[in-house]
Write a structure and sequence with these properties.
It is a single chain. The protein has eleven helices and ten strands. Helix 1 packs across helix 2, helix 2 packs across helix 11 and helix 9 runs parallel beside helix 10. The two termini are about 30 Å apart.
Length: about 350
């Protein structure tokens, strides 16, 4: 089975009827549905998604119209309301998932230690302590374990353990979990102490899928709204070796967030911010001087071809950028699926 067929099969699993004994999950900081889609693919019954962004919530509703969504500041969501909305009692939830915003930790950004977004993990641990699920998963950027951010990583680890959990943490690369994207993330997995099961991280699943393999079956359009129009940037693109970033040939070392992908390697990490002018971050085609379109980006991010995005993402610049941001911020669905299946097999079945 090739990648496109595998992704389509996983998408069908995501929308299949849930088994009566399906494990339950609540997704916090749900975004546009990367983690949700992955857990749906793994057979989980998602009882609630928590998200504040309008566009992200609209995306979730387009794809999962029956999914209960709590939209607002997570700081205003208390444990009793979660239990009431999900008809659960403390300790009954199987899995609590969350990807607190990571801009303050990211090595791509300014890495500001006192960025207020760095403290949003406390909202996750507050819900964790109150809900007492059997298992939790928390995701963040690798910048969390680098340099001055290591102290925050240790603080997060200690707080998670203090909620009553055995915790393991490590860096996982999505390209070894079925995603054609070399995206590294720190993953925390915890099991409630009374289960007496030590959590582990999923192992690599096989040889990485290349960007070229990921796009098989999609039309390779050389024109459109994403083409680099400025001849200076087109000249830079033409000089960049496949798989390298634009700063390697830029006379002043600029455009280090722009990448001309190689069809023979997994995609570079999809970042949140792009422009269609060719003067900022983004992933560019190997054969055509243009950004990848959303259909192609979905393949790199392991979102199904049938995934819906608000607006007209092919021709409207704002809609395109918002969809790109959703994919760039997301935990790739097939990565979340691999984690979810690993948890089912090694923890929940026991």
């Amino acid at each position: 089975m090739n990648y496109a067929e595998h992704l389509a099969a996983a998408a069908r699993d995501a929308h299949a009827e849930r088994a009566p004994n399906a494990p339950t999950v609540i997704s916090t900081f749900a975004g546009g549905g990367g983690s949700s889609t992955g857990y749906h693919m793994a057979g989980y019954n998602e009882l609630l998604a928590v998200e504040w962004d309008d566009h992200a919530c609209e995306t979730l509703r387009l794809n999962y119209p029956k999914l209960p969504i709590w939209q607002g500041d997570i700081a205003n969501l208390n444990v009793s309301e979660v239990l009431e909305r999900t008809n659960l009692k403390t300790g009954q939830l199987d899995l609590l998932d969350g990807s607190p915003p990571c801009q303050g930790f990211s090595s791509v950004g300014q890495r500001v230690l006192d960025d207020p977004r760095n403290q949003l993990f406390r909202e996750f641990t507050r819900l964790l302590a109150g809900l007492q699920p059997r298992v939790f998963v928390m995701e963040n950027v690798t910048g969390l374990i680098e340099g001055k951010m290591k102290a925050t990583f240790l603080e997060i680890l200690a707080e998670l353990k203090s909620c009553g959990y055995q915790v393991t943490a490590g860096v996982l690369n999505a390209s070894y979990l079925g995603v054609p994207q070399a995206r590294e993330r720190v993953i925390f997995i915890g099991t409630r102490n009374d289960l007496s099961i030590k959590p582990t991280l999923p192992r690599p699943q096989g040889k990485p899928i290349t960007a070229g393999q990921a796009l098989e079956g999609l039309p390779s359009l050389g024109t459109g709204a994403n083409v680099i129009k400025d001849p200076r940037w087109r000249n830079v693109w033409a000089k960049v070796k496949l798989g390298a970033d634009f700063s390697s040939v830029h006379p002043k070392g600029h455009l280090f967030s722009c990448w001309r992908l190689s069809p023979d390697k997994p995609s570079h990490t999809i970042t949140k911010t792009i422009t269609t002018a060719g003067a900022s971050g983004g992933l560019y085609h190997w054969d055509h001087p243009r950004l990848f379109n959303i259909d192609e980006l979905c393949r790199f991010g392991s979102f199904p071809d049938t995934y819906k995005w608000p607006g007209d993402v092919q021709t409207d610049k704002k809609d395109h950028q918002q969809a790109w941001a959703r994919i760039g911020n997301a935990v790739p669905p097939l990565m979340a699926r691999a984690i979810g299946l690993h948890i089912r097999e090694t923890i929940l079945k026991k």
